[in-house]
Amino acid sequence: MSDLTDALVEDLDGGFAQVVRWYQGSLLGTALRLTGHRASAEDLTAEAFLRAFRALRDYDADRIAALDLRAWLVTVLLNEHRNTIRTATRRPALSGAPLPDRPAHEPGPAEVAARADPDLAAALARLPAVQREAVVLRHVADLDVPAVAAALGVGEGTARSHVSRGLARLRTLLASHDRSAS
Amino acid sequence: MTDSLLARLSPPAVEKDLSGAVMDTFTTTAGPLGDVLVASSAEGVTYLRPVGDVDGFRAEYRRRLGRPLVPGTTGPSIGARTPVDLRACSSFERDVLDATASIPAGQTRPYGWVAREVGSPAAVRAVGTVLARNPVPLIVPCHRVTKADGSLGRYMLGEEAKARLLADEGADLEGLAAFTAARTVLVGSDTTGIACLPSCHHARRITDAHRVSFRSAAAARDAGYRGCTVCRPGW
């Protein structure tokens, strides 16, 4: 999306409004799969956008023009997610890591429709973090393997194996869940 | 070959516009001393400055707040009840601004009073620094904070503006200046044995015949007075 990086170089604030409109759907979806929780996903995505803006503030025009915005934003989102979990672990009194599903109140129909697949969220939550992240970046955010590897800070072979092991584990978890449900 | 798990992973459309949560807006609006530039988040006013240099306003906003800012259509009305968003401030800054916001209209408190209220009585200069860069003047009334002797002191919009704002709020500036000239920092009532800051509304009710002036809290204490629990002059 070189149009968007052009817009950012032209006017960082106005260009960023376009970036938010363009990418918020895919970032929210990715955040939803990472957290399993609608409200956390919205907070996480908004925080990631703000963190991205603070980073862009210090980038010169060449660096902004060279950005692969989508992969970069997903990476910022992932790092923000990891920070949130670290903070929640350090200060468990403050709400803690969000658990999938289980809203405190009775959800309305719109909320039920918007909340995605609690069984999948529960299965994702049971994966080791790095496998969950690899699967979500590859198959939810739709990054290619080199971008997933860069975001995770691992080699491409390692990234590929995290993705395939994560997928295999997910299949097992979901299959056993479906059996016990029926 | 379609893989049902991969299809299941692909996220549902989340119909939610985060623009309001991410993008702050700014506009020109009327303040008590004329037009001001005011920036707001979804939570409230984040930054306010006198109208003028828009580019400087936006540059300072980017540097201090670090949040994206675009032109908006409507601004809030500026007053004590205007909601503010001070999340970009440190906890000390927030405490100082909260204490300052508690000063009633038309009254003044010295910097040292704010320092005591936030539990850091020695941090008088730090309080001055925070108020000198108050992100939301006019809403958080830093114009009601004075020097220790009660003289008005500096103000980011100018000393004249400080006097005008206080006068418009009903402050008796001549009376306060007379106390300053007499080096009176507290006034007591010899019928109640209570001492107040000169602008406290309890102090204003003391009749001339019963008013006792003090040059320090220690002097009032030695004379057997106690501090007013409303204006909390520091005891």
How does this structure look, described?
The complex is a heterodimer of chains A (182) and B (235). Chain A has helices at 2-10, 12-35, 38-57, 61-65, 69-90, 109-114, 118-125, 129-140, 145-152, 156-181. By secondary structure, chain A is mainly alpha-helical. The model of chain A is unreliable at 94-104 (pLDDT under 50). Chain B has 235 residues and is of the alpha/beta class. Chain B has nine helices and ten strands. In chain B, the strands form three sheets. Chain B has a four-stranded mixed beta sheet. In chain B, strands 9-7-8-10 form a four-stranded mixed beta sheet. Chain B has a two-stranded parallel sheet with strand order 5-6. In chain B, helix 5 packs across helix 6 (124-132). The longest helix of chain B is centred in the first third of the chain and has 11 residues, at 54-64. Chain B is elongated. At the A-B interface, helix 2, helix 3, helix 8 and helix 10 of A face helix 1 and helix 2 of B. Chain A: Pfam families: Sigma70_r2 (PF04542), Sigma70_r4_2 (PF08281).
Radius of gyration of chain A: 17 Å
Distance between the termini of chain B: 81 Å
The helix/strand order of chain A is HHHHHHHHHH
Strand content of chain A: under 5%
Number of strands of chain B: 10
Question: Summed up, what is this model?
Answer:
Chain B: Keywords: Activator, DNA damage, Methyltransferase, Transferase. Chain B: One of its GO terms (biological process) is methylation. Chain A is mainly alpha-helical and 182 residues long.
